[in-house]
Amino acid sequence: MNLQESGEMYLETILVLSKKMNAVRSIDICTEMGFSKPSISRAMHLLKDGGYIEIDESGFITFTDLGREIAEKIYERHTVLTAMFKAIGVDEETASEDACRIEHVISDKTFEAVKRHMKEHKM
Description:
Number of helices: 6
Number of strands: 3
CATH superfamily of the largest domain: Winged helix-like DNA-binding domain superfamily/Winged helix DNA-binding domain
Strand order of the largest sheet: 1-3-2
Strand content: 5-15%
CATH architecture of the largest domain: Orthogonal Bundle
Largest sheet: 3 strands, antiparallel
CATH topology of the largest domain: Arc Repressor Mutant, subunit A
CATH class of the largest domain: Mainly Alpha
Helix content: 55-70%
Shape: elongated
């Protein structure tokens, strides 16, 4: 199943929140992303139906293996691209915003080249 950019953003947000707190619920995602409860609820049900997350009876969200894999891939792209942009003189906020847009469309081949370049040049 091909996940849309918005789904990738939700998975990345769940991953980031799970690094900060023990358990993630829809309300935490609402607060983090600034979206309405109905929007988040709908998105979570789509992610659950797609096999990316599980939601227990208390509303706690956990990743399936597939969901975690995608979330970590997107998060890595975000952090590496942000670091690269900062290394070439872009301010933190702009670097992060641009990385957020690019992380969803950059090819695996190009991203691997970026990582290799950064490693070779100790960026």
